[in-house]
Amino acid sequence: MTKSIVSFESADTLPAHLLGGAGLGNENVSASDMAIPALKLAQAMSPEVKKSDAKYLKGLEVGHIFNTLTGDFFDTMFVLNLKFETGFTIFKKRTEGGGFEGNHSSLDAANQHLADNGLNVDSHDIVETAIHTVAYLDEAGQNPTVALIYMSGANKKVSDAWNTALASYECDRFGTVWALESVEETNRKGQGYQVFKASNKGVADAALYAEAKATYFAMKGLVEPTIH
Questions:
Q1: In sequence order, what are the beta bridge partners of 136?
Q2: Residue range 3-24: average pLDDT?
């Protein structure tokens, strides 16, 4: 017979004996070894808003921005834009049930993914996608957390406008703070859908800028040159 020993505590915050730990056991874990969540807009057709769907998130409503890893959602998020790149995203067609099938660095790589996984080309769309790597802030405007935002279709013009605005500031890309929200647009059939809206809210203070800069170099697997 095995004796059960309960030696853990349930707590929302770390108890005193764990605070200030040195992160032992995580010495070989870098930013590239951790899952990066995506920030997505809840649409009317999103499975996360449907109570009958296994992906349903309680309380999530159309227009909310939600974290795909934690399930947290917000009306407004404050972010620093760390990096921009483009890719090719595979989506399963809505007539086939819809869904995200992955993002790839090139059109050839996306097509190869479909072939390697035996996926029907006619059942999927490959869309050129703008990818923004951001650091989103908590309610106190601190603790930047890295996340990805994929912008394609109607959101591509939002991405272009955001890049233009970011380039107008004579500082590093992550030197300014932006509010992310959603607004509704309508297609030719009169159907509504959500797109991102990015509004500048000011500049990062010295501490936040330093943290964002260190995060930028960590993502690239580098040490900031000014850190010795």
A1: 79, 145
A2: 60
Q: Is residue 8 part of a domain?
A: no
Residues sharing a CB contact under 8 Å with residue 65, sequence separation 6 or more, in sequence order: 39, 40, 41, 42, 73, 74, 75, 76, 77, 180, 181, 182
Q: Is residue 9 part of a domain?
A: no
In three-state secondary structure terms, 31 is helix
CA 170-173-178 angle, to 5 degrees, is 105
C-alpha to C-alpha distance for 139 and 82, rounded to whole angstroms: 19
Predicted pLDDT at 12: 57
Interval 128-155: pLDDT, tens = 899 999 999 988 888 899 999 999 889 9
Q: Where are the alpha helices (DSSP H) in the chain?
A: 107-116, 155-167, 206-219
Number of domains in the chain: 1
13 lies in a domain? no
Print the domain residue range for 79.
75-219
pLDDT at 91: 83
Compute CA 198 distance to the chain's CA centroid, rounded to the nearest angstrom. 14
Confidence at 2, pLDDT banded by 50, 70, 90: very low
Enclosing H/E stretch for 132 = strand 124-136
Which CATH number characterizes residue 149's domain? 2.40.50
Whether 34 is covered by a domain: the verdict is no
